[in-house]
Amino acid sequence: MLGYHGDTSKTFLCGNVTDGLKRLVRVTEECMERGIACCKDGASFKKIGKRISEHAEKFGFGVVERFVGHGVGTVFHSEPVILHHRNDKSGHMVEGQTFTIEPILTIGSTECITWSDNWTTVTADGFPAAQFEHTILITRTGAEVLTKY
């Protein structure tokens, strides 16, 4: 479709990687999948953050709160704002809505610092982080992933 946006990301492992980093990347992708699994028409947005936080915490990882999912359509960043951590945000999903789920998990601090290029962002303590993202379409019975890789 012309004039519509999609948004996706995936963390890749390169070289010799520790089991701890492999676990971080695997759990981050699982968190995204768990967030997607709770989406359907009428579901509360806060369920996404609850599911992601519960799974991340089981493995001792933190969820970065600074970055959020967002609506996607003819405008790239729009409503709704999707929080990936536990929250009390009101609102419910509506059939036909499109938005991203894009949790960022970290081994250490969930605080971030943006470099002078105004784009590159790292954890405040320099510890590794991972991110996965899909754009989804809300249906009556669930969510359709629009950005399968």
TrEMBL record:
Domain Peptidase M24, residue spans: 3-139
Keywords per UniProt: Aminopeptidase, Hydrolase, Metal-binding, Protease
Single GO BP term: proteolysis
Gene Ontology terms, MF aspect: metal ion binding; metalloaminopeptidase activity
InterPro entries the UniProt entry points to: Creatinase/aminopeptidase-like, Pept_M24, Pept_M24A_MAP1
Keyword Disulfide bond found: no
A Pfam family recorded for this sequence: Peptidase_M24
Superkingdom of this protein's organism: Eukaryota
PANTHER family in alphabetical order: METHIONINE AMINOPEPTIDASE, METHIONINE AMINOPEPTIDASE 1B, CHLOROPLASTIC
Protein's name in the database: Methionine aminopeptidase 1B, chloroplastic
Species in which this protein is naturally found: Vitis vinifera (Grape)
Lineage: Eukaryota, Viridiplantae, Streptophyta, Embryophyta, Tracheophyta
Name of the gene encoding the protein in the UniProt record: MAP1B_1
